[in-house]
Amino acid sequence: MLRKLRHELFSTPGDGVLSLGLLSLLVLALVGFLRWAFHQAEWAVIQANSTLFAVGRYPLDQQWRLWLLTTLLVGAAGLSWGLLRAHPRSDREGVLWPRNDRVAAAVLVVLALWLPFALRLHPGIQARWWGLAALLLALRWLAGRHGRQLPSKLLRLVPLIWPATYIIGMVLISGGLGMAKVPPSEWGGLLLTLLAASFAILLCFPLGVLLALGRRSELPLLRWASVVYIEFIRGAPLITLLFLGQNILGFLLPGGLAPERIWRAAWVLTFFAAAYLAEAVRSGLAAVPAGQVEAARSLGLSYPQALQQVILPQALRVALPSMVGQFISLLQDTTLLSLIGLLELLGVARTVMANPEFLGKNAEVYLTLAVLFWCCCAALGLGSRALERRLDPQTIPSR
Amino acid sequence: MTVPVASTSSVMIEARAVEKWYPNGFHALKGCDLEVRRGEVVVIMGPSGSGKSTFIRTFNALEDFQKGQITVDGIALSNDLRNIDAIRREVGMVFQQFNLFPHLSVIDNLTLAPVLVRKRPKAEVSEQARALLERVGIAEQADKFPGQLSGGQQQRVAIARALCMEPRILLFDEPTSALDPEMVREVLEVMQNLAADDITMVVVTHEVKFARHVAHRVVLMTDGVVVEEAPPETFFTTPAHERTRRFLDQIL
User: Fold this and answer.
1) pTM, whole model, 2 decimals?
2) Which of residues 144-163 of B touch A (CB under 8 A)?
3) Are B17 and B7 contacting, i.e. CB atoms less than 8 angstroms apart?
C-alpha cells in the first residue's frame, strides 16, 4: 500500500512537489469547508423549511399520501434490486451481495441514521426515514434470498410494478378516487422537480426513438419532418421554448392535456429532450453493423421484428451512456421552471432566501440544492452503469 | 467421394440471365445463369470482386437485381414482399462475418427466428436447438454469449442458427474466410456432414479441398459472368476454359 502510494505520487522529485502541493490544497479546502459547515453555517434555514424543499405547499393534512408513495417506491426499489441479484445473466455466476451493493447498503444506513438526526428533523419524521431504509434493505435481503424460488410466470410480471407504481403515484399526488384533489399549483420542491423530470424522461424516450428512426427512414416526408423537428428544437434555447410553450401549447395540444402551467412546462421539456435523445439513438443505430439486419432478414424476420429484437436492443445499449447524460441534464434543466414562476426546488429556494427571516443564508440553501441534485444524478448514473454491465455482451463475470 | 445426383430431382434454384447494377452504376452481374437441384452441393469460386457473393445474395433477396429471373423452390423472386418473406423462411444463410446477435445468448440466437417467424412453442424449439448445437459440437456453450466464443465456434453457432429454421436451401457466403487457419477445419467438417444430408447447399469459398471432395459441381465466376460449370474432377483437372486454367494456376 505504502509502496504503491510512493510509486504513484512520488516517483520523481517533480511528481513529489506536485503531489504535495495538490494534497495541501485539498486539505486546506476541506478544513475550510468543514469549519464553515460546522461553525459558521446556520442550518436552521434548512431545518425550518425542510417540508417546503421536499414538497412545496402541498397541504399538510394530505402529506400521508406522499409518504405512502415514497414507501411504495422504496418497496419497488428493494424488490427489484434483490431480484436482479438473485437472477444474474445466464452466462454469469451470481453474487448475492457484490462489493458495490455492500457499500451502497452501508452508505444508505449511515445516511438514513445520521442525516435526519443531524438536520434535527421532527422525531416522527426521523423514525419514518429509518423505517423506509429498513424496509428497503429488508426487501432487498428477502428478494435476494428467496427470489430464485419464484415461479417464472410471476417473475415476468415484476417489471410491471414500476409503471403500476407510477400510475398509483400520479393518483396519490393529484387526488381523486375519493381523496381530496390537490391542484398542481400546490405541488412544489423536490416533488415537482422529480415529477417534471420523470414525466419528461419517460415520454421523451419513445418519442426520441421514433424521431431517430424517422430520420433514417427511406420515406422522404418522414425523414424531412424528423430532420426539421430535431434541428429546430436543437437550435432554440430551452428557456425560449418554455416561455413559448406557456403561450402556445394551450392552442396546440387537445384541451384536457395541458391545462396547467406545470403540464405545459413538462410537455416542453419532453419535446425538447426528445430532439437530443433522437440524436443519441441515431448514433446508436449507426453503430449496429449492416450484417445484423441481413442476418435477421435472412432468418425470415420482418423489418419490425428485426428492429425490435435485433437492431434496437443493440443500438440502445450503445446509446445508453449518452442517453443517461441527456436524462441527467434534463433533470438539471428543470431548474429553469423557476423562471416561468413554478416553485420547483430552485423556485422554493428563491422564495426561502427572499424571506427576511433567513436573509443572507444563500450558501446553505444553494449547497443543499446542489447536494440534492447530485444525489439524484448519482442515482441515475449508478443505475445506468449497472444496466450497461448487465447488457454488455463482452464482460466477464463481475465480482 | 462425390455422390451423383439423380437427374430426375427437382430444381431448387433457377437463375436465368440475372443482371445487376449497383446504384453507383457498377455492372456487378452480367447475365448469370445457374441451376441447383435438390440435395446438390454447388461451390462457386472466383477471384475477389467477381460478383459471386452478390450472386448468391440475390437468391434470398438480400440484393435486388434489375434483369433476368430467379425462382427459388418454385417461388419467383419479385418485388412482392410476401414472396420474399416466404423465400427467406426456406433459405438459410451463413455469412463471412458470422453475424450472430451479440446481445443474445447462443441458445437464444438459435430460437429467436423459429419462435417469432414459425410461431413454434419455445420449449420445443429449445430442445431442437440444443440438439443442433450438439451436432455442431458446441452443446456446452449454449448459455454463453457469442462474444465469448472463438471464431470457429461462432461460425458453427451461425450454421446451427440457420439450420434451426429447417431451411431447404443453405447459402454459405465465404464461411471460412474470416477464420484463423486452425479453425477452418472444424467449420468445414460441419459443412461436410451437412452435405451428406439431403439439404441443398450453395457455397462461395476459396477452399479447394472442400470443393474437390464435397461439391457436386463447381462454378467459376469472373467479372460478373459464369465462366465454367463442371463436376469437380473435370473442373480441377481438365477445365474447358483458358480463364479457369489461369485461375487454378493462381490458387493451386
Assistant:
1) 0.82
2) 144-148, 161-162
3) no
Taking contacts as CB-CB distances below 8 angstroms, the residues of chain B near A309 are 101, 112, 116
Task: Identify which of B103, B116, B143 has the shortest CB distance to residue A393.
Answer: B103
Rounded alpha-carbon distances, angstroms, from residue A260 to A183, A184, A187, A342, B9:
9, 7, 12, 11, 74
pLDDT tens-digit series, residues A45-64: 888 888 888 888 888 888 88
For residue A352, give Cα distances in angstroms to A40, A46, A122, A189, A345.
19, 9, 20, 11, 11
Contact status, residue A234 vs residue A275, Cβ threshold 8 Å: yes
Query: Is the backbone of residue B223 left (phi > 0), alpha (psi -120 to 50) or beta?
Result: left
Cβ separation of B101 and A297 shorter than 8 Å? no
Q: Which helix (H) or strand (E) holds A167?
A: helix A161-174
Hey, is A355 helix, strand or coil? coil
C-alpha cell read off for A106: 452501508
- pLDDT at residue number B3: 47
Task: Quote the DSSP letter at residue B101.
Answer: -
Q: Are strands B169-173 and B200-204 parallel, antiparallel or unpaired?
A: parallel
Please name which of A395, A337, A344, A394 lies closest in space to residue A369, comparing C-alpha atoms: A344
C-alpha separations of B238 from A142, A335, B227, B232, B234 in Å: 76, 82, 14, 10, 5
Of residues B171 and A114, more confidence is placed in B171
Which residue do the cell numbers 427466428 mark?
B113
Interchain contact A152–B (C-beta under 8 A)? no
Name the amino acid, one letter, at A338.
S
Contact B190, B199 (CB under 8 A): no
Instruction: Give the CA radius of gyration of chain A.
Output: 24
**For B83-135, what is each residue's pLDDT tens digit?**
888 889 899 999 999 999 999 999 999 999 999 999 999 999 999 999 999 99
What residues form DSSP beta bridges with A176? A179
In this predicted structure, the answer to whether residue B175 has a pLDDT above a threshold of 70 is: yes
What ipTM does the predicted assembly reach?
Answer: 0.89
The answer to whether residue B72 neighbours chain A at the CB level (below 8 Å) is: no
Q: Could you give the CA distance from residue A19 to residue A399 in angstroms, rounded to a whole number?
A: 32
Cβ pair A305:B103 closer than 8 A? no
Q: Which three cell numbers stand for residue B18?
A: 440475372
pLDDT, tens digit, for every residue of A160-209? 888 899 999 989 988 878 788 888 888 888 999 999 999 999 999 999 99
Separation of alpha carbons A185 and A192, rounded Å? 10
- Burial class for B182, CB neighbours closer than 10 Å (0-12, 13-18, 19+): exposed
Counting one residue from chain A and one from chain B, the pairs whose CB atoms sit within 8 A come to 74
Do the Cβ atoms of A343 and A56 come closer than 8 Å? yes
Half-sphere exposure of A124 (CA within 13 A, CB side): 2
Q: Is A329 touching B (CB cutoff 8 A)?
A: no
User: A168: Cβ–Cβ under 8 A, 6 or more apart, which residues?
Assistant: A69, A72
The whole-number pLDDT of residue A186 equals 85
Split at pLDDT 50, 70, 90, the class of A97 is confident
